[in-house]
Specification:
Structural class: mainly alpha
Radius of gyration: 18 Å
Oligomer: single chain
Strand content: under 5%
Largest sheet: none
Length: 182
């Protein structure tokens, strides 16, 4: 297949893309941009490679949500934060975490169905409900972690891990999953 044929095929797939696919890709683009911009606006010195690689991977993740580009984007942004950011919990950390969460969920949703596939309101609701719960739980877990960390409670790591497991379970069950086989 020549380059011209590939581009023609890709453009035809874009024209036939469903509304659900466009919503998920737009969510990926917007929240990915937030995840890149918020750390860049912080006073600490961010690695110059993070915005360059992050922008390239975000563009690829929007165009090809079922590729590994979204995983690389998440790893680059999170890795850049872990390597250079201060250890304090700030609003910027929470906003970046929520943005990365939405990027993950949006690319997972967009990547699981073909771009031309039709998804009804029920499919969107099954995606939006856990995404909303996870986005609302992220600041709660951050506040709880900051409180436990500031209080020097023995076993605070276990409390933080327990809160994350509880948040994960809430998202899991909100998405309609169950522990029993169907």
């Amino acid at each position: 297949m020549t380059l011209a044929e590939r581009i023609t095929r890709w453009l035809a797939e874009l024209r036939s893309a469903s509304q659900a696919s466009w919503i998920a890709r737009a969510a990926t683009a917007v929240t990915g941009a937030v995840a890149l911009v918020v750390p860049a606006l912080q006073p600490w010195d961010q690695m110059p490679l993070v915005p360059i690689v992050g922008t390239a991977m975000l563009l690829v993740a929007v165009v090809l949500p079922d590729s590994a580009a979204a995983l690389v984007f998440l790893a680059v942004v999170a890795g850049g934060w872990v390597i250079r950011a201060p250890a304090d919990l700030t609003w910027a950390l929470v906003v970046t975490a929520i943005a990365l969460l939405v990027v993950h969920l949006a690319t997972a949703f967009a990547g699981q169905l073909p771009s031309y596939g039709r998804a009804g309101r029920r499919a969107l609701r099954r995606w939006v409900l856990p995404a909303t719960i996870a986005a609302l739980l992220a600041p709660v877990v951050a506040i709880a972690a900051a409180l436990v960390r500031g209080a020097d409670v023995p076993g605070s790591l276990l409390v933080t891990v327990g809160a994350l497991i509880g948040a994960t379970a809430a998202v899991w069950f909100a998405s309609g999953q169950s522990l029993s086989e169907h």
